[in-house]
Task: structure prediction
Amino acid sequence: MDIKTFLTKERIIWHDRFVPSMIAAVAVLIITFILQFSGFDIVLLTSISASLVILTSQKLHHLTILGTAIYSYILASVVGFSFLLLKQSISLSIITTSFITIITISILIYMFDIVHPPSVGIALGIIYYSGSVFNLIFTLVITLIMFIIVKIIMYLYYDHLKIKFLHHEFLIWKKKFLRK
Result:
C-alpha cells in the first residue's frame, strides 16, 4: 500500500470517528452546563458521557441501541431514588447504600435484558447527588432527550442506518433489527 492510499484510508477512518465524537462531546457539554447549575455530580456526568459515546457507535449491538439506554436509565433512576429514600429514612451509610444499589441495579438490568453498564453509575449518582430532587429529575429528563437527539443525528450521519427504522431502537425485547 502506498502512502497516498494509506493517508486516504486514515482520513476516512478519522472522519468516521471524529464526527460522532464531536456530537457526543457537544451533548456532554450541554449536560455539564445543566449539571453545573443544578448540583454538579461527577458520577452522573461520567455515566451520561459514557452512554452518549456508546450511542454514537455505527454498529448495531445491544449496548448501542437507544431503547436499551433509555429503559436502563429509567430503571436505574427508580432504583437510585428508592435507595436514596431508604438511605435517608433509616440512616444507612453511603457505603452500605452504594453496595446494595449496585447489586440491585445490576441484577435488574440483567433480569430485564437491558444491560447498559453506565446505568449502574446513574443509580449510584442519584444516591450521591447533592442538589434538589427537581433538578435531578430535570437533568435525567434532559439526558434522555439528548440520547434521542444524538441517535437521530447518528441515523442521519451513517449511511447504513435508515431513519425510517429509528423506531426499532425502542423494540429492544423483539431484537429483530439485530438479526442479519
The radius of gyration is 18 Å.
